[in-house]
């Protein structure tokens, strides 16, 4: 069983750090913001609650929520323009520091690639380091579903992405950082998990995480020891 000090040591010598996006890198939950923007916020929040409580699979919950939202390409673009995702304080500095230390940074999200790419660009994270769900649209821009073949559309998908990255890049040491149960479940294959409660505290994650932080400043401080 790993300890807090071992988790911190793994973080300091990590070759790659993977961040969840919703309620971790950004302050909000992207799907809930999209639902609010499309006027169906309450109905979607209820399904999100059920999904978080584990009473339906991630893919079923995603499918049900998107079937209610049925957002057009134009609505998604307008959301990003009018209500761009709000970065969590300290994330920009942390990602810059990780890059300075030659630690690769990835974003792994159950949210939507179009929103996550916008976030990645702000943080100078290459777009091929983004793993998220892909919305599909018809030629006229109407909603046509989502790409169900993406690993992030499945329960346990974040762990699948980490296993794939380990194989692709021969990483020995990877760390997952996030606020939710799907982030916690990605360790293993991640070598360590750091729980983040700066935007929302999920009790089951706080209880199980060996290292739980409420500010990215705590992680920056640890990197100063390198």
Description:
It is an enzyme of class 3 (hydrolase). Its EC number is 3.1.3.3. Belongs to the HAD-like hydrolase superfamily. SerB family. Pfam families: Hydrolase (PF00702). Keywords: Amino-acid biosynthesis, Hydrolase, Magnesium, Metal-binding, Serine biosynthesis. By secondary structure, this protein is of the alpha/beta class. It folds into two domains: 4-28 and 85-224, Rossmann fold (3-Layer(aba) Sandwich); 36-82, no CATH class. Helices cover 45% and strands 16% of the residues. It has eleven helices and eight strands. The chain has helices at residues 4-12, 30-37, 41-52, 58-69, 73-82, 91-100, 113-122, 157-169, 181-184, 203-208, 217-223, and strands spanning 16-19, 104-112, 130-133, 135-137, 143-146, 174-178, 192-196, 211-213. The strands form two sheets. A six-stranded parallel beta sheet has the order 3-2-1-6-7-8. Strands 4-5 form a two-stranded antiparallel sheet. Helix 2 (30-37) runs antiparallel to helix 3 (41-52) and helix 6 packs parallel to helix 11. The longest helix has 13 residues, at 157-169. The chain starts with a helix and ends with a helix.
